[in-house]
Amino acid sequence: MDTFDLTPAAWDPRARAAVAGYLQTIAAGLPLTRRARAEVMAEIADGLACAVEAHIAAGATTAAAARLSVAEFGDPRELSAALAAEIAWTHARRLGRALVATGPLVGLAWVGAFAQASGMTWWSQIGVLMASAPAYPLVLAVSVPAALVAAGVVRLAGRPAFGATTAVNAAVVASAACVVGDIALVIGLATQPGDLAWTAALACAVPISLVRMGVTAAAGRRALLLRAAVR
Amino acid sequence: MTAEALKGHLDGLLLAVLERGPAHGYALIEALRAGSGGTFDLPTGTVYPALRRLETSGLVASTWEKGDGRQRRMYELTTAGHRHLARQRQSWRQFSGAVTAVMDGGEPAWTPST
Description:
The structure holds two protein chains of two kinds. Chain A has eight helices and two strands. Chain A is an all-alpha fold. Chain A folds into two domains: 62 residues, no CATH class; 143 residues. Chain A has a two-stranded antiparallel sheet with strand order 1-2. In chain A, a hairpin with a 2-residue loop joins strand 1 and strand 2. In chain A, helix 1 runs antiparallel to helix 2, helix 1 packs across helix 4 and helix 4 packs antiparallel against helix 8. Chain B is an alpha+beta fold. Chain B has a single domain, classed as Winged helix-like DNA-binding domain superfamily/Winged helix DNA-binding domain (Arc Repressor Mutant, subunit A), CATH 1.10.10. Chain B has a three-stranded antiparallel sheet. In chain B, helix 2 crosses helix 3. The longest helix of chain B has 25 residues. The termini of chain B are far apart. At the A-B interface, helix 2, helix 3 and helix 4 of A face helix 3, helix 4 and strand 3 of B.
């Protein structure tokens, strides 16, 4: 965990310790990438510095100003949980949208690989693809609705039909289903014996699935961690 | 007034303050305190999750600026934010007018049958 010593070096050491401790408690409750966490902490540190400066201008010592400012900001664990909730929702939306956007591309890559290997039209290969990986229709039945809910595109009266908690849960489900789907495709099809044309076609489709699987697994894990951070 | 009492109104109040021009988180909460004569004395930290929510909803946009030797995140209303604020304002006027009319004991629109 990074330390967040964002206070001016000229401050009283007790003031620096009070503000740094407050920031550290918030940071500890945010399961974000180093860059994303630093961005959140920079904003709150700036707010705290403004508060300290306001109290000093009103006549407080630096140490007293830091104590007052930290108290004024509220319970750091509550603030951390509230931030995690909002960030989790944003993350769920992005993840849902990414899955909705990339799903058809991955599907096309696989259908294209089948068409290339068999020399037949791509649309005739959709059924072959589904038959070759029996778990895939089930994966689609779970992942597509979950990704749409996470993305916030399911709307009622112009507003997202589901709240933050549902969106985050849906993002976790959608990402898990996509990972399972990619594993099913890669293991179920890539291990089948085939000729050179088949191997060449798979050489394009498998890396696409592997990249999607890795990125989705990491994003799904992040959604799980953020969900756990929302108390 | 507690954060709980303001729940549901904070987003609209922040949009109303931002209508005057771009501002950072601390300036917004200070403007709320000053504008309400100290009635809206929320924990300052409350503003940051609310601003994230408004940004995710596309009602505000943020940019980073260098201020006083520190990185500072500035927020401003988007076009959608202006539209949302106008709707919220109209809805609040209707609601508060109706509550005031009843609370102040105005002429009832109907009388209960005996």
